[in-house]
Amino acid sequence: MLRNIYSATYKFIELYNFNILNFIFIGFTVVIVIFGSLINIVETLLPDCLRQSFRYGKHCHKGPANALISMTEIPKSWFKHFYIFSFTWSLLALSLLLKGFIMNATAPELVLEFLDFVAGGQANRNVQVNSTSALVASVLLTIQCARRFYETNFVQIFSKNSKINWSHY
In the structure, what pLDDT confidence band is assigned to residue 18 with cuts at 50, 70 and 90? Predict the structure, then answer.
């Protein structure tokens, strides 16, 4: 059953050149631009629930709390899990790139299938950057993830009362 759903979805991606990653990033960008603009331009006219769900930390909403939105808030300290995840995956990506760069090895089939699934299918697979640029970018991303991982786990002291909306998490 699950294999059939995957197969049908993959056929749709291949047929229509549907790039899931572009769709997600465009969606995030549109939501952030719309809500960010509303907060910056007409914040006082917006309902408290929108202000409470968008603002966090030292800029958090100071007015009356919406009970439903309060239920969707999590401790800000939980965000450290994001950097554990990102550091782990950036190290994995860097190791795959180094393996390809040094030993001219190809990526495992599972990685290629995943990339085809989220980025438009095998027919649309093409090289857009050279290997040196990809390696430099991966090294820099891994350093940034390692730095943020270290900061959030060993340097930063989170307030016990600081909350963020799950959508920020």
Answer: confident
Residues of 85-110 as b/e, b for ≥16 C-beta within 10 angstroms? Answer: ebbeebeebbebbeeeeeeeeeeeee
Short-list 74, 47, 66, 82, CA closest to 152: 82
Q: What are phi and psi of 56, to 5 degrees?
A: -155, 170
Task: Count the Cβ atoms, other than its own, within 10 Å of residue 164.
Answer: 20
DSSP secondary structure, 68-124, as one string: HHHHTEEEGGGGHHHHHHHHHHHHHHHHHHHHHHHH-PPPPHHHHHHHHHHTT-GGG
Supply the DSSP symbol for 130. Answer: -
Q: How confident is the model at residue 1 (pLDDT cuts 50, 70, 90)?
A: low
Q: Quickly tell me which residue has 């950097």 as its tokens.
A: 83
- Residue 154 near residue 50 (C-beta atoms within 8 A): no
How many other C-beta atoms can be found within 10 angstroms of the C-beta atom of residue 60? 17
